[in-house]
Amino acid sequence: MIPRHLYDSDHEMFRGSVRKFLETEAMPHHEQWENDGMVSDEIWLKAGEQGFLCPMVPEEYGGVDTDFLYNCIVNEEIARSGCTGLGWTLHNDISVPYIVRYGSDYQKQAYLPRCVSGELITAIAMTEPGAGSDLQGTKTTAVLDGDHYILNGSKTFITNGQKAGLVIVVAKTDPSAGSKGISLFLVEADLPGFSKGKNLNKLGLKAQDTSELFFQDVKVPKENLLGEEGRGFIYLMQDLPQERLSIAVGAVANSQAILEATVTYTKERKAFGTSVASFQNTQFKLAELAAEVTSAEVFCDRCTELLLEDKLDSVTASKLKLLTTDLQCRVADECLQLHGGWGYMWEYPVCRAFADSRVQRIYGGSNEIMKLIIARDLMK
User: Fold this and answer.
1) Catalytic machinery residues
2) Among residues 25, 42, 96, 242, which one has the fewest Cβ atoms lying within 10 Å of its Cβ?
């Protein structure tokens, strides 16, 4: 193993707390959450009590004002535990940071303390039925009418969609202005005209609530515009490197966990009178995956350092997201194969990992979009 220099003793103490919490408070309930299609409200509140939600939020708003390494630790431990229903990664790394960076004093005071405590769960509504990775194709509109914006449109595939009490909605305030006509809004879930569709039935992430959202003449107070009108697309682009790093951190950690579990399984599993681990094919497959996971971890750690230095650019983050999520899917596939028929049983972590990992190549911009970003940089 290559030593990791990113984390000091304080980080590792925090990691131990997160790991123990997941083992005692989340893992025993995850099967029930899968059946329910969502985790409990209680786990959010307990996580808030322990300081696992939004650690980067400034102290004046209830947070502890840490750097992104603490977010990475939470993400790694969730990925290793297999408790994929916990929507903390989106809450901690994506939606709440928008409020921290672009929110007004009023917005920060109104929402951040409850985001930290787990009382207020957040979501971000970008994807539409006809616009996924193409944010400029957004059809949802917000028209200023006096002291309110009138919001109309729909969103889909929204993580934390059922439980969210606050949603950052991407909408067009000037449909004729292209990317310069996109704005962000903080929309409270109890506003008249805002409705949630059914909890979507997905291939994986069975314990994660994912929803359609509908907006019909929703009156959003003018003061709930996040940042400046017309700068939403810029905000989204500026924050995508952190989102893609966040996805990669989970991908690497999950790959490592499934690889380790498969090594253990093949040592114990017998076939043709000997352990599956004794076959050369098994050893070669595991060796290849181990080399790739180690390389991915080193790259991911370096990108984390760049983020901390405010130097992680879009192209590098796209390379990381592309490589790590492709690897995660390959690790899950190869490790499932080494489990044989048992790998196809839901009770085995590798089966869940196989189903859960597939969306990673779509999250945060599909991997085809990552290739396009990288290629454009090469062709400059």
Assistant:
1) 243
2) 42
